[in-house]
Amino acid sequence: MRLDKYLKVSRLIKRRSLAKEVAESERIVVNNRQAKPSTEVKIGDLIKITFGNKVITVKVTQIIDSTKKADAENMYEIISEDRI
Fold first, then answer.
1. What pLDDT score does 63 carry?
2. Potential cystine with 37: which of 4, 26, 42, 69 (Cβ 3.0-4.6 Å)?
3. 3-state SS class at 65
4. Is the pLDDT of residue 34 over 90?
5. Separation between Cα atoms, residue 52 and residue 36, nearest integer Å
6. What is the CATH number of domain 3-83?
7. What per-residue confidence (pLDDT) applies to 24?
8. Residue 16 and residue 22: Cα distance in Å, rounded?
9. Confidence label for 14 from pLDDT (cuts 50, 70 and 90)
10. Which residues does residue 49 pair with via DSSP β-bridges, in sequence order?
11. From CA 84, how far away is CA 82, in angstroms rounded?
């Protein structure tokens, strides 16, 4: 699944267009590599996202094309959440 779609479906970022914008501004790293919106995400990947003064690292645990809000939290496991 594309990174921008995964971030939207998992509700880590609310809109796909915003996820694309964040990736294009080089604020997302997947498995220690700079990510583009089209980067393929697989189960077990580590995604590091920089939001303003917060950095969150998550591990992909599931990939589902569409989810309900309750199921979205099961798509990832939070590894760390740090303030800059």
1. 95
2. 4
3. coil
4. yes
5. 19
6. 3.10.290.10
7. 96
8. 10
9. very high
10. 28, 56
11. 7
3 state DSSP class of 54 = strand
Token pair, residue 28, equals 């997302």
Which phi and psi (to 5°) does residue 37 adopt? -60, -25
For 65-81, the pLDDT digits (tens) are: 988 888 898 999 999 99
Rg (C-alpha) for the chain, rounded Å, is: 11
Tokens of 4: 């921008």
Answer for the pair 36, 20: CB distance below 8 angstroms, yes or no: no
pTM: 0.92
Whole-number Å distance between alpha carbons of 54 and 19:
16
Bridge partners, 51 (sequence order):
54
